[in-house]
Design brief:
The chain is mostly helical. It is built from 16 helices and three strands. The protein has two domains: 121 residues, DNA polymerase, domain 1, CATH 1.10.150; 191 residues, hpI Integrase, Chain A, CATH 1.10.443.10. Helix content is 49%, strand content 5%. α1 runs antiparallel to α2 and α8 packs across α13. The radius of gyration is 22 Å and the shape is elongated. The relative contact order is 0.10.
């Protein structure tokens, strides 16, 4: 949900919806705004769920969501999410949306106190957390080849999308939220401007990713709108990307237990570990991933000395030739296979 859409929606919205839209407008990430809008209940979820949105639950309880809610109502809602079998992560996100909205209402003077203060959020036990899957170098190459040779008219889009995810470390929400107009040049390097958690930032595009994007755009009848568009010109959903990545993983012959759990977050994790395997530095990786706190990046700490080039270029060089990756520069990637239009 883009800020322009928020303004347009607020013009004809009811008072409660306008308060939700005002809160969402302060969120920098378009992906976060869209998720919270569904969680609060001002937009329709993409698929049916037994877990009600906050506003739907308030309506069912015959309580006004601003003036009538107490801490007991929020606690009962949290219990409802548990009873219907919502995953701990999804329940925690819904409660975070509720808590964040009421905190904003207090800050703006609409309420004297938040009814969601101190409401515990479910946490998955540490021993129950599955390790994030990641691709080895050979598996990453196999996935790239599967995307480059995917059947059907969407092959150029598939090749470009996988290359961007794997060679930039971008979040899936950043990629599917980008438009064609967000492609640009910064200090003679191709970049994709995305709206991240900490504002707008430019993702350096390695030659391998940029060439695939160019081939994809050349195959499109309209070179405007969403960068990665559906057949009808709409914007992809994150779930579409998850399904695509898993289909390609199966097509690439990756192990079934890996292919079945592979998603965009795993692509981001794979980018990080491949970069560090190639000799990249934690500091540059932190910048590439858009981490505000370096402690988050240290989860991937298998780094050596800085290699002096953009992370995406180093990953591409490492995939093409790991033995010489440390000696390659950004301009030495001509050996990387690039899908041309229709190829």
């Amino acid at each position: 949900m883009r800020r322009a859409e928020l303004v347009a929606a607020a013009a004809e919205a009811d008072p409660v919806t306008r308060l939700v839209l005002g809160w969402l407008a302060a969120k920098r990430s378009e992906h976060t705004r869209a998720a919270y809008a569904r969680d609060i209940g001002i937009t329709t979820p993409r698929r049916s769920s037994r877990a009600p949105s906050w506003l739907a639950w308030c309506q069912a309880q015959d309580v006004h969501p601003v003036t009538g809610v107490t801490g007991l109502h929020v606690a009962r809602y949290a219990r409802r999410l548990e009873v219907v079998g919502l995953s701990p992560a999804s329940a925690a996100r819904k409660l975070a949306a509720v808590s964040g909205w009421y905190a904003w209402l207090v800050q703006r003077g609409h309420l004297s106190a938040s009814p969601a203060v101190d409401i515990p959020r479910p946490r998955r036990p540490a021993g129950d957390r599955p390790a994030t899957p990641r691709l080895t170098r050979d598996q990453a190459l196999a996935l790239i080849r599967a995307a480059d040779t995917a059947p059907g008219p969407q092959r150029p889009r598939t090749a470009a999308l996988i290359a961007v995810l794997l060679l930039t470390g971008a979040r899936v929400g950043e990629v599917i939220g980008a438009d064609v107009e967000d492609l640009g040049v910064n200090q003679r390097h191709r970049v994709l401007w995305v709206n991240g958690h900490d504002g707008r930032r430019g993702l350096p595009l390695p030659a391998a990713a940029a060439a695939r994007i160019d081939a994809y755009l050349a195959s499109r009848p309209v070179r405007a709108g969403p960068l990665f568009a559906t057949r009808t010109g709409g914007r992809l959903f994150a779930a579409d990307v998850w399904r695509l990545v898993r289909r390609l993983a199966a097509r690439a012959g990756l192990p079934a237990d890996l292919a079945g759990h592979l998603g965009p977050h795993a692509m981001r994790y794979s980018f990080a570990t491949l970069y560090l395997d190639a000799g990249g530095s934690l500091r540059e990786l932190q910048n590439a991933l858009g981490h505000a706190d370096p402690r988050t990046t240290r989860r991937y700490d298998r780094a050596r000395r800085p290699a002096g080039r953009s992370p995406g270029d180093l990953v591409a060089a490492y995939l093409a030739d790991p033995a010489s990756a440390a000696r390659r520069g950004p301009g030495r990637l001509s050996t990387w296979p690039v899908t041309r239009r229709g190829g």
